User: Fold these one by one.
Assistant:
Number 1:
Amino acid sequence: MNANNYVVGVDFGTLSGRAVVVRVSDGAEVGSAVHEYAHGVIEEHLPGSSVRLGPDWALQSPQDWLDVLRFAVPSAISAAGVSPSQVVGVGTDFTACTVLPTTADGTPLCFETPSLPHAWPKLWKHHAAQAHADRINALAASRGEAWLPRYGGKISSEWEFAKGLQVLEEDPSVYERARRWIEAADWIVWQLTGVETRNVCTAGYKGIYQDGGYPSAEFLSALNPDFADFVHKLTVTEPSTPGAPVLAPLGGLAGRLTARAAEWTGLPEGIAVAVGNVDAHVTAAAADAVRPGQMVAIMGTSTCHVMPSDRLAEVPGMCGVVRDGIVPGLWGYEAGQSGVGDIFAWFVDNAVPSSYAQEAKARGLSIHEHLTGLAAAQAVGEHGLLALDWHNGNRSILVDHHLSGVIVGQTLATRPEDVYRALIEATAFGARLIVETFERSGVPVEEFVVAGGLLKNRFLMQVYADVLRRPLSVIGSEQGPALGSAVHAAVAAGAYEDIEQASAAMGKRTVAAYVPDDKAADAYDLLYAEYRRLHDLFADGDILHTLRRLRNAATGPGRPSIQGSEAGA
Ligand SMILES: Nc1ncnc2c1ncn2[C@@H]1O[C@H](COP(=O)(O)OP(=O)(O)O)[C@@H](O)[C@H]1O
Ligand SMILES: O=C(CO)[C@@H](O)[C@@H](O)COP(=O)(O)O
């Protein structure tokens, strides 16, 4: 193994893109850079336009993604102090399902018609297609579609089919012009190589690709006759077998860096480009956790739980089980919580008095660090609160993105740090319910490995160890997805035989970095029992869906407006 060879991993997260330069021989990260998306998450109105977006919309700009290639990659190479000629491959990963309509040559439709909301990429957290997902689930259940149990009995509004059906029914002109409906994970590889691919991971977890195919045209037509051709927008086919979808395997060589992409990135034209991947699933390789029973929780804006397994089982409320979905040769399970870091961000941005921010600044702490310090000083249960971590819907195990958050137990004495701690605990309880659901379904969770931006919160990590009553292993990188993409790049470049070998050489984790404290764990068991009762009380959505309907009616076109003196009456 040439110790002077490097690979570059590029992780496209929700708020920014991160590039890491990694030594092929041992996975040492020698340089990195971050590029914040200029448009961030587009939720209110289209960029440079007064066109307002509806509730639960979340879009992103393809130009922001291209800017990551143009700025973060060269900066990472510069920070690494290595010559670009030493770089033998590049790998990428993306949030998913982040999906966009394009022309046949991959041009995003929003570049052509920027004033049409449906022409823009729909970010993974776009939850405005829940009604479409409900229809897909109801029809699939009534017809006994074989693929439905592979997704725990429900497909998500976050995924390709619900979002595609929403475009068809809300803007048929965009649907008609879209020759491709493509995950950003595959679109960015297309930009780097000029080769259009569909990776097995997003196809399986987000595109309902199971047992060699997509849902039938007959099923799609029953949803909407004009939806029958949708699969053609998803599919890359071999010329020899027209119509048969061809998926690209993880760790495979998608193509080679084009001259245009070489100019963007400063990397050598012709180097290997790995098949695209999802930010969560690629992280398993970075943690050297690609064996059956190793659950990796990528904890950031959201949390994704990914786990290889040698057994196929129906696990209620999972995000999916896909053959070869994490590593070739094994089943790959995914579960998730669609709001974790985002919930903490919402709270500090909207519900904390400025005095806390001033105190944090005076102490040289972030507001998260300051609130965490105050919260950590409490005994378990001292705040008297309990929360449901559904502020961005529930991904597992209820798969309902029209659920919303719940906090009970507040009194006139409740302080911001009390609520902040209750929110942290609620996300831990949600994770425990996911782990218990796997184990009850016969899929053992042998090791719980943590990655992602929330690693920096040591108190939060200890809460998870106590609530889960199991040790937490911790990935040895602050850029897990980017390192994972670099591992895949090394395989694509031919430096390793397969992902397992590359992961063993380049991935890293500390086993049992956190161990449960029995006294705290006992106290959390009592709170968790109440969490399960609160969970089951609100799970059917009866109250929370009603609140959403009332909210949407109040903010809709015919909303009553109270002006002037009446407003304060
Ligand atoms: N000290 C902290 N404790 C808890 N949450 C934090 C802390 N610092 C940042 N966050 C949250 O972490 C999330 C960002 O996670 P990160 O993994 O960096 O991004 P991404 O999810 O885009 O990959 C944000 O939602 C932010 O609110
Ligand atoms: O859903 C998945 C993966 O399946 C994630 O890409 C999505 O939740 C976004 O993750 P982040 O929290 O932005 O890292």
Note: DSSP finds 21 helices and 17 strands in the chain.
Number 2:
Amino acid sequence: MPYMLLAHMDVVPASQEGWHVPPFSAQELDGFIYGRGTVDNKNSAIGILQALEFLLRRDYRPRRSFYIGIGHDEEVSGRKGAMKIAALLETRGVKLVFLLDEGSVILDGFLEGIKKPVPLIAITEKGSITANFSVESAPGHSSAPPKEMSIGILAAALSRLEQNPMPNLFGQGPEIMTLEYLASEFSFPLNLIMSNLWLFSPVISRIFEQKPSTNALIRTTTAITMFNAGIKSNVIPPSAKATVNFRIHPSQTVEEVLEIVKNTIADDRVKIDIQEAFDPLPISPWDDRAFGVQIFRRTLLDVFPDVGSVAPGICIGNTDSRHFTNLTDAIYRFNPVVFKPDDVPRVHGLNERISVEGYEKQVEFLFQLIQNSDISKLPKPHAESHEL
Ligand SMILES: N[C@@H](Cc1ccccc1)C(=O)O
Ligand SMILES: CCCCCC(=O)O
Ligand SMILES: [Zn+2]
Ligand SMILES: [Zn+2]
């Protein structure tokens, strides 16, 4: 059965100010290639093609077929790119043994007490709701304003959303698996804590709430991203509009989140329109028989011998891979790039970059992955090879 390597060539915008080099120049500076898309996700799009080139130069002839999918509109939902690729493969009756897309990385220095960089392979991704909120009110002269107007009503409603975060669901999603797989990587006494989450969950969940990147792992997040209102300083604003982006924790659904939103807003003057919504993605297999997982483990050992044990994780953003659920249940989101904490704000932010060595390692990983995937089936898990 074939597998698929997925990437996207499109990027989010970038304006010049704040960048050390022009954001679309791909200039090298201190061993880094700077540019919009260098880690999201041209590193994969070009990395896959370059690995393929190296294989072809060596007259390598893969025995296991594979697909390369490179979307061109991932950052605006993938409807015309990845979705069309998936639909075409579906009409051909294609099934995939696994699909590898962006969505997680090798984390270095994110978790206190873990010394080694740890590869986290996302086995699911959060759901999403993009909701538009609006309040209409009679226009008029600002010299005789009513007690409440559209801007104040909507702002108060959104403030209630922001001040009442969604419930902390630590322990009900794959974050537990992540910590259990990483427990051995933690130094004492964290290794004991991580191996006894039944006892220490309340402590850990409080710690996770402290930072946006870990808080996003344990609850549905609420981001008020757009607010437009008012037409002139002396006119009562006829309407106020806002957009909120929720990313739904794996143990919640769109419906449940919308219920909580309505109860929190609790104001019939606020209208809610759903622009786009989808539930959290299914959780991909993670066990000794999962072909993809074993291939990733083997390839990481080949290319990154010094990293810690591989752990399953959750992608807090969304990716094109969500369009391929009819072709496989083994969807994994992972780019073999080492991320330090200061790399996170660069994604969709300023001075996005990848080190030259980091890009070379990604190409090497893909070069190895294609060869490692060329086995017909997995060697028997070690335990089974001993006759009992
Ligand atoms: N990957 C981007 C764009 C995106 C949004 C929603 C769905 C799919 C992709 C994000 O997570 O925000
Ligand atoms: C690192 C997470 C990536 C989310 C998908 C994107 O922004 O392209
Ligand atoms: Zn992106
Ligand atoms: Zn991306």
Note: Residues 356-372 form the longest helix (17 residues).
